[in-house]
């Protein structure tokens, strides 16, 4: 009997020791997570568990000494972001159109804006305007051009044009949200829906994710150091909607902008880096990561797997197709490495799952008449976010 009790006691002690080891491991991982925000895979056996997906969650390096310019930029940002948000009683949405020339959907936008004349502003950067005659067909866009300069795809010119639009729009103190759109964009909802969606949240909507592949972090170059660390480098769609504070931060920045101007370029030396896909995304991730949505409110269809997104023709314009885009409530990111890892996340607006998109692109000019005809039907389906 004594031998049996001793054996049982030994087994219990072994089980207790095993449980203690497991608890200590979990506690260690938890502490590492709390202090680094990431889970070290070695706590859970390494090997297969330390896949590239897990390895990217390795502990962050220790804090580094920042340059004087960085500290000045961070001090300015912290002061601005700590101020309570004061919204004008006459708050407006600023619609900023970045286009080479004509806007093929003027009639559609005219319908969208109708009856809300005191609630929006329009700004147009037409980079090829000097080569064109009078191009505006509606009063909504007539006289809304800003002084524009040439924009070449894939160069810092694109970011310069975005900042130029922001600067002009920020001159109006009543403009509260700033929406960047292209000539091929269309509205997916009524003006009232869009206005409430943006005005009733404190977040900016900037597509921003960590892509470990060649078209993400593979575009990073070490010359961006020390201000921009590789683990801070982000990628995303250029079509943003930012609040006033974030807009001011973007146009006031020179420290991080210079890094992208000088070292994010086309060509093998710079890893074929495109500034419009990285600058705003990385800058706001560094300055205020908890106040950006990590998805764009402008829908783009990359399902064809090409360098450019799918274009919608006249045959694609049906009420059911537009409604299908309207009700999408998850945003999807796919890494550009061989693994092609797909991440799906719900679009959470003020703590609730909501449709992700307010606008969509790329629609061909031939679709305008069909879209105008369907506009009231597909925008009346939604009454508020």
State the main characteristics:
11 strands; four-stranded mixed beta sheet; alpha/beta; 385 residues; disordered N terminus
Please write out the topology:
Blueprint lengths: L1 H35 L15 H4 L12 H15 L9 E8 L6 H8 L6 E7 L29 H15 L4 E8 L3 E2 L3 H9 L41 E3 H9 L2 H9 L15 H9 L10 E3 L18 H8 L3 E5 L7 E5 L1 E2 L2 E2 L5 E3 L6 H12 L6
Parallel strand pairs: 1-2, 1-3, 6-11
Antiparallel strand pairs: 3-5, 4-11, 7-8, 9-10
Helix pairs in contact: 4-11, 5-7
Description:
Strand 7 and strand 8 (342-346) form a beta hairpin. Helix 4 runs parallel beside helix 11 (368-379) and helix 5 packs across helix 7 (244-252). This protein has a 4-stranded mixed β-sheet, with helices on both faces. Residues 1-61 have low confidence and may be disordered. The protein has helices at residues 2-36, 52-55, 68-82, 106-113, 156-170, 191-199, 244-252, 255-263, 279-287, 319-326, 368-379, and strands spanning 92-99, 120-126, 175-182, 186-187, 241-243, 298-300, 330-334, 342-346, 348-349, 352-353, 359-361. The chain is an alpha/beta fold. The protein is built from 11 helices and 11 strands.
């Amino acid at each position: 009997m004594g031998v049996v009790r001793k054996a049982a006691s030994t087994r219990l002690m072994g089980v207790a020791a095993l449980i203690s080891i497991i608890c200590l491991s979990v506690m260690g991982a938890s502490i590492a997570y709390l202090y680094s925000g990431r889970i070290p895979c070695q706590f859970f056996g390494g090997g297969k568990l330390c896949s590239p997906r897990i390895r990217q969650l390795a502990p962050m390096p220790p804090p580094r000494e920042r340059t004087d310019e960085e500290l000045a930029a961070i001090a300015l940002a912290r002061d601005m972001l700590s101020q309570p948000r004061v919204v004008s009683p006459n708050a407006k949405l600023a619609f900023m159109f970045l286009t080479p020339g004509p806007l093929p959907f003027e009639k559609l936008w005219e319908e969208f804006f109708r009856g809300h004349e005191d609630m929006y502003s329009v700004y147009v950067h037409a980079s090829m305007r000097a080569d064109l005659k009078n191009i505006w067909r509606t009063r909504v866009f007539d006289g809304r051009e800003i002084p524009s300069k040439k924009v070449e795809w894939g160069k810092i010119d694109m970011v310069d044009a975005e900042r130029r639009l922001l600067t002009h729009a920020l001159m109006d103190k009543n403009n509260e949200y700033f929406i960047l759109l292209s000539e091929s964009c269309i509205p997916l909802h009524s003006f009232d829906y869009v206005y409430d969606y943006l005005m009733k949240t404190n977040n900016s909507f900037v597509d921003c994710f960590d892509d470990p592949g060649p078209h993400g972090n593979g575009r990073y170059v070490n010359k961006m150091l020390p201000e921009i660390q590789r683990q801070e480098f982000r990628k995303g769609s250029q079509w943003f909607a930012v609040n006033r504070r974030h807009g001011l931060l973007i146009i006031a920045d020179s420290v991080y902008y210079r890094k992208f101007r000088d070292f994010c370029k086309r060509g093998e030396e710079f890893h074929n880096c495109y500034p419009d896909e990285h600058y705003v995304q990385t800058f706001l991730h560094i300055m205020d990561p908890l106040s950006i949505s990590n998805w764009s409110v402008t829908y783009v269809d990359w399902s064809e797997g090409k360098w450019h997104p799918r274009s919608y023709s006249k045959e694609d314009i049906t009420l059911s197709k537009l409604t299908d885009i309207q009700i999408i409530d998850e945003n999807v990111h796919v890494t550009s490495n061989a693994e092609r890892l797909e991440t799906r996340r719900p679009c959470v607006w003020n703590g609730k799952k909501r449709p992700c998109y307010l606008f969509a692109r790329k629609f061909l000019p031939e679709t305008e008449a069909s879209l105008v005809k369907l506009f009231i039907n597909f925008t009346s389906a939604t009454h508020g976010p």
